[in-house]
Structure formats: C-alpha cells, structure tokens
Amino acid sequence: MRISDQMLANKYLTNMNSTKSKMGKLQQQIATQQKINNPSDSPSGTASLIRLGSQFESTQTYINSITRSLAFLNETQFAMDTMQNEINNVMVKLVDFANPTAQQNNALFADQIDKSLSIIMDLANYQSDGKYIFGGTDTTKAPFLVSDDGNSVSFASNSSGEQKIKTSTNITQKINISGRELFGTIVSESGAMDKTAALGSVVNSSTKIYDATGNEYTLNMQYLKLDNNKYQFSYDIVDGDSNSIYGAPPSSSELIFDDATGNLKTINGESPAIFDIKDPENKINFSIDMRSLKENAAPSSITTSVNQKNDIFNTLIIIREKIKAGEVPDEDLTNQVKTFFNHLLNKTSEVGAMINQLGNTEEMLNNQMTNMQNLAASINEVDLAKAILELQQQDYLLQFSNKVASMILPRSILDYM
Prior knowledge:
The chain is an alpha+beta fold. Helix content is 47%, strand content 21%.
C-alpha cells in the first residue's frame, strides 16, 4: 500500500490536534487543580462527585445543628449546676434555722430564702442566644410567671414539650429539658390494660396531688374500654371531703393502642405526649404522662407515681412565709426541697448524657466528612507534579512532531524525479 503525502499530512494534523487537546486539558487541570471540569471529562466521576456533594451538604447541616444544640445544652447544664448550688444553700439555711437561737433572726432567714427563690426563678427563665432554655417547644416566652403579690408562681402554657434535632436521615435526638419536666409535678401512669376485657370495662387509678399552697387533693382517673385497642380516659379532682373541685372534666381523651406491639399509639389522634392539667382558681397545676401504658392479654394493672409533690417555687414561697411568721418549716417541706434537689441531679445527669451523645455523634460525622473529602479528592484532585510532567512530555512530543514534519512534509515534484 502506497502512503501518500496527503495521508502523512492528515496523520500529522490529527496527532498534532490530539496533542494540543491533551495539553489544553492538562493546562486546565493544573489551573483549576481539578481532574473533572466538565461532565464529559468523566461521567462516572461526575456522578460520584454529585452524590458526595449532596451527602457532604447533608452531613454539614447535621453538624451545624449539633453545634448549636451543644451550645444550648451547655447553657442548660450551667443553669442547672448553678441551681444545684442554690438549692443546697436553701437546705443549709433550713438546717440552720431549725436551731432555736437562729429563730430570733427569722426576718434575715426569710430574706435569704427569698433571694434564693429569686435566683432560682431567674435561672428557670434563663435565656441562651435569646431562647428560654426551659421553655419547652416555645422558647420565645418566659416559661414561669410570678404573681403581682409575689406569693405564687405559675407555669406558662409553653413550658412543656420536647425539642428534637435530626442527627442523620432516620435518627432524632432530644436536646432540651422542659420547664414542666424539671420543675413541675408529673403524674406518671404505667402498666397494662387487659386486651381481652369486655367492652365497657373500666380501670380506675388515683393519686394525691397538691395545690401551690400545699393543700392535698385526690386525682381520680378512669379508663373506659370503647372498642378493641380503644379507651376513653377521664379524670376528676376531689378535696378531702370527696367534693369535686374540678367539676365535669372539660374533655375526655381517646387512647388508641397498637394492636401488634401493645404500645400506646395515639392520644386524641396525635402522638403520645405529656399533657397539662391547670386549675388557676384552685392553684392546681400538674401534668399527666401516659406514654408508658401498654395493652396486653393479661389482667389490667396500672401503677401511678408522682415525681414531686409541689414545684420548688411555691414550696420556697411557703417556706419563706412560715419563716417570716417565726415558724420552723416542717419535715414535709424540707423533704420537698430534698426531693427537688435529687430530681435536679437526675435531670442534670440526663443533660450530661445528651451532651456526650451529641459530642460522639459530632465526632462521627466529622470523620465521615473527612472520608468524603478524601474520596472526592481521589476522584477529582490533580496530582500537580504528575500533571506538569505529563504537560512537559506532551509539549516535547509536539515540538518533536513539528521538527519531523518540517523535514518530511515540505516536498516538491523535484523530490520525486
């Protein structure tokens, strides 16, 4: 086969264009320090980078959320640690005031209790970055309010609820201690309903509750079976003479249990949650938590427990007024302060566990970010030394090709005679 001059010229031009194209690509990679500057450079690599970029953004969002939450929880822990010190001071003052010689200074001791109350109240309404840390799901309003006469403290309606953040696609974590669960009285119902019981069957439970001034009442609760897995919950509050002070319950709640697991599925069509009972006229304010209730094929057995008899604010107000009157607070009041102190310790430990969990999650996500960055770099990052060497090689080939072409291509008819 005869190789014509035209074939040589075409081959030369093809090789020259290919070399220049490679040089252009290498120059662009060196300038941008990226292997992939256009999707056509590597379709599979582009798809991988898009996927990694999406994962990177999601992970960064989780990390940012965790960082903000850790700051919030650290402020919460600070407030609770400070509160512990103040409650401890109150317990010391109560012991000191029990000494007959100290009772001559009752006004001084009452003033000290009032100052402690004021500090605890400020901590209960403590803000972090403009958010009330004990505000529950509404962090824009103060969760606790003092009456005009200073003789009672009430819970705002926004002092309950859990704040949660997503730490991955399918995982959420609680990041707060609500004012209700820390300071309030929570009546917890646990145990199981009898799945085999007849429709219309009733299960009763009761417990003692107290108003802000320490007066005792009885909370009566009833579960009426309406249908399979369905119950009507109602309650009433009666005084020591068995007179209802609450009247007919304002509304009844419908409980639905999961047929497969037996867990409480909904309360009034919504996910189970703690709900509040407030009777301002009688200064009664507490919550009911039925989230631990179940339903199974066994005799009904309901256990009722109360986390604390009264909130610490109104307990300290009662103590202050007794000391002002020259009375030594009785053992029951002293125990209420101790109960809150122990409750506060438990909740502080819970905050510590949240901080540790979020810290571990943040570290794991940061490791994932590093791995994604390394993987993206392996796909797209340019080895500058190697790229520069390849550019030099392509330049040498181009110069060599031009030199050879200068000797072969410039021919005339005389070269063939």
